[in-house]
Amino acid sequence: MFSTLGLFSSVACPERASCTRPNCLFSHSQNLPLPRPLGLPQVRPSQPVASSSSASPPARAAANKPKDSLIPTKRPAVSPVTGAFTSPEPPRKFQKVGSAQRPSALPTASYTESGAPILRVNAAQSLVAVPVRQTMLKTLYDHFIVLYHKIIPANPSIAADHALKQEEEMYKKSTKLTYRNAVIQCVAALKRRAVPTSVNDPTVGTEDEIIAKAEAQKKLASLHLSRESLEHLVHSVEDLQKWGYFVEIPETPGGHMPSMEGKIVKCDRCVQYYVVKPVDNPKECVHHWGKPYTTRAGGEKVRTYTCCLRPVADGGGCSHGPHVFYESKVEDLHARHPFSSLQPTEPNNTCLDVAAVDCEMIYTTGGMRVARVSVVDGSGKEVLDEIIRMDEGVLVVDYNTRFSGITEENHATATLDLAGVRQALKSFVNSDTILIGHALDNDLKTLRIIHHRCIDTALLFPHKAGPPYRRALRELVREKLNKVIQTGGATQGHSSLEDASATLDLVRWFIMNKSKSGIQVDS
């Protein structure tokens, strides 16, 4: 044996008392600390080790590294007992590597040139093979096309949209094994549906939507609005005046000038002055039939028309028609046809406690006049729906069919004038009846009725900008009732009976949703 040189005599033996070497190279002195284990970096096989001849000097190598690589990394900790490396992270088998929830893989809207929907989902997240789901989606779409063939011309994308929603519903409800059968059963249910003629029909929508609509409609229909349940919602006379209602009958004579023919007035459409006369040039007025609204373009506010999306600053118009005029002063309206109040309650009367009212108006030589009035009671039952002919000497200038729904053909069937309709109203409404409507002041003005017991849905659901701004009835019905109304377009216009029923349902919705706050409801 060679003699030791004593190179490790100052290094403590790692095994200390358990060392069995007869001539140990290390020191067994108790005053020396244990040596620290060496943490040698591992070199990845895919990264070749640079040779010493091509290695850069340390300073240059540090300068050539990106800034992110110069940030010191967290070194592994060393156990003071065993001397082994420890990691701040838990072992891999105890780490969360995924969610326990089912992958969603829900579709997004995408369509072919023919309008058929295309499934856009993450195949890795879908429990059902995407080709299978696409086939089932196409099957649903084909059956929705057949079911909706009467309403597709006015709603081109409704079949594709409902097919996507229906497939999503089936996917959420089923498993990988039951998905195909669930879709097949849904197709069978589609075949049993009655063909809808309107988007508001109960057979329009997915299976879940139809069930939800049926339950909501059942709740609304079962709620009968009585005078006692609505008394707290009747607006005060001060509120009515603030919103433009007429609360008093003018002292001036009424009905002495039913027509303004031959007078100079300002056109309500093009804001030019003209002489009122029967229509001889139906295209002399160039105007926009839509209302202007404010949008933002390039950071600036721009006023744009809803009818053609043209800026107001461009001037001109997008439509042609006759000049028409509109009057808003109570004295002027009273001169065309006199105002009056509803009769007080009489003994043994059969008048309604609650009635919803809506009117459709047309332009005449006597200004804007009522051409149709519709009334429903507190249960939603139709009470009156009458076309009204004009007073003697008053001629129709524009039927305004786009909004009124009145045409020359159906207006020719009218038998009652305004006085006759007002007489008919007296048989089921009086001064104690609570009248419901949307922007009800306009209906009362055109009916020439002064009434103080009113509930206006424009006031129940106020515009965020405050008066005089009002939310549109169509917007409120879509938001609160999940229904679409006023879909007649330029040829059919609005339906006063549909609008009257919609305002009644809005009040029902208001009562049902406010009942949790302590409002008593009679059903």
From TrEMBL:
GO terms for biological process: negative regulation of gene expression. Gene3D superfamilies: Ribonuclease H-like superfamily/Ribonuclease H. It is found in: Nucleus. Keywords: Exonuclease, Hydrolase, Nuclease, Nucleus. Residues 36-109 are annotated as: Disordered. The keyword Transport does not apply. One of its GO terms (cellular component) is nucleus. This is Exonuclease domain-containing protein.
